[in-house]
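Fold this sequence, please.
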Amino acid sequence: MFVSNRITLAHGSGGRLTHELIHDLIIRYLTNPILNKLTDSAMVTCKERLAFTTDSFVVSPLFFPGADIGKLAVCGTVNDLVVAGAQPLYLSLSLIVEEGLEYETLKQVIISVARNSRNAAVKIVTGDFKVVEKGACDKLFINTSGIGRIVSSGELSANNIAITDKIILTGRIAQHGLSVLTKRKGVHLGFSIKSDCNPLNSLIVPILHKIEGIKFMRDPTRGGLATTLNEIAVASGKGIVIQEEKISIAHNVRCACELLGIDPLYIANEGIAVIIVKENDAHKVLRLLRNHFLGRYASVIGEVVRTPRKRVVLHTASGGWRILDMLTGETIPRIC
């Protein structure tokens, strides 16, 4: 058993302490027949088209209102698969731990990974554990990779986007970035803002089985909604016009943005998606989204237009027009 309540370099040596940690934490909380074999590679069977993704998580602080680095790692990777048109199946989990991290902190992160992987119906099937010297990383970094089975009837590609396609946003914006920022800086607003971090497969995958008119999807994480829409406009070669009054923002988030002088359109999200859908299918998709608790604030926020090409234009609530550019610089670093 552990002789210290903190992680030491010996825990990453590959010896007795490493094996005890893997069995006491990883196998105990993430147990499944594939992972339990502890082989160098996971053996999985898939006979269909696959999506594969990888991501790294360096968020600071490790715990913040509504989520933590463990939940973020699972949901972030799951959602990258979902917006590619896939049903997530398997994840890897690699942990890079700074010497001196409290054992209890690591335990809480692993418990979060276990809980959220169950909620997302995915299995952690392989991974890695490393310990680095004090100061070589900030407490804990996580890398995850994910494999999913493609379930969309056609290829989701920006090349498929056409004039008059509708743009759907599945939920409220700006909650994740503000949650991390206020916790990190110790900002007391008089109210709490929780991250929207959630796995989107239960929301979106059933719709992919029912609707063929979905052209493209993207989760608006770093850079926020405005940057994501710009990426779509450039990739498709089309223009995008969105309606400010259709974009759902919680009242407390709007107040916080005004107090902090931050544009919510550029703040990261971790539990919503942008869906580009054929005009005739937009209301069907919207109805299905709103039947799910994660999609209760879904709305059609705009459409694809011919001009201006490769640009995003916002029709403001006051009746004016504003060009939305990509984020320049980093408004809130290390939010994922």
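The chain has two domains: 9-150, 158-324. The chain has a mean pLDDT of 95.
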